[in-house]
Amino acid sequence: xxxxxxxxxxxxxxxxxxxxxxxxxxxxxxxxxxxxxxxxxxxxxxxxxxxxxxxxxxxxxxxxxxxxxxxxxxxxxxxxxxxxxxxxxxxxxxxxxxxxxxxxxxxxxxxxxxxxxxxxxxxxxxxxxxxxxxxxxxxxxxxxxxxxxxxxxxxxxxxxxxxxxxxxxxxxxxxxxxxxxxxxxxxxxxxxxxxxxxxxxxxxxxxxxxxxxxxxxxxxxxxxxxxxxxxxxxxxxxxxxxxxxxxxxxxxxxxxxxxxxxxxxxxxxxxxxxxxxxxxxxxxxxxxxxxxxxxxxxxxxxxxxxxxxxxxxx
Length: 314
Description:
Elements: E1 10-18, H1 21-31, E2 35-42, E3 58-64, E4 73-79, E5 82-84, E6 91-97, H2 100-107, E7 113-114, E8 122-126, E9 132-136, E10 154-161, H3 164-174, E11 178-182, E12 186-190, E13 197-202, E14 218-223, H4 228-237, E15 241-249, E16 257-263, E17 269-274, H5 275-281, H6 288-297, H7 301-306, E18 312-313
InterPro entries: GLOD4, GLOD4_C, Glyas_Bleomycin-R_OHBP_Dase, Glyas_Fos-R_dOase_dom, VOC_core
Domain VOC: 10-138, 153-275
Family: Belongs to the glyoxalase I family.
């Protein structure tokens, strides 16, 4: 794998903000067939803005097709006081390498689905917050034997770019990602073989702007902890944004991790976390489903805010 200054980079997860945990959990479980891997509750905002620029109670739920050690997964952050987030044009979709059974599950779930014209092996669905998922059997996303370690079933994250040249220069030349393909409309990059890809699409128009609005996400990677200062220093030397300089993040009862948060030229947020501690933090919790279900059952925020004019829109 091409790596930053010789250090292994591992694609971990993409972060979504969600407004309705109940419908969101139903979508990931019943439509996508994922399972919850861990669930964590916090009483105050994250020092690295994992939950966005919000203070107060929030939760984090990791969901995916298998353990975080081997799978690219999704992180769902929920702020108790916010019901909806304004969407921009920054996020274009998640591609899932699917089997026929996956397509059938989505089609039979009762959830709205779209089959693109002329396609027999693709189903498109949207999460309750409007995040687009493309379930595809197309060979370029195929993982072959789905039990094979190191091959991600979440095959690609699709993001917008205002300038593909600047995007490629940043991700390939600064961060050390491998450029898999490039044309006038799209660039595909990957930190290492078998890992989730990043597909950047050129926005149309003469001077397009990536609008991240309030619903913007974040993509996370790990590397050896001793590589984090160098990644931060290289970003600073290149005149690129460091949103959160190196700091330690605590999770109650779990491992403390070190992170650096960067932004690419379009403002897409990138988290680098020390791999050794993250592997401890990200172990599957057999109680994840029940912890989430208990949190949802005990969540009276909708009723509380209903008496005060309803939850805020971000």
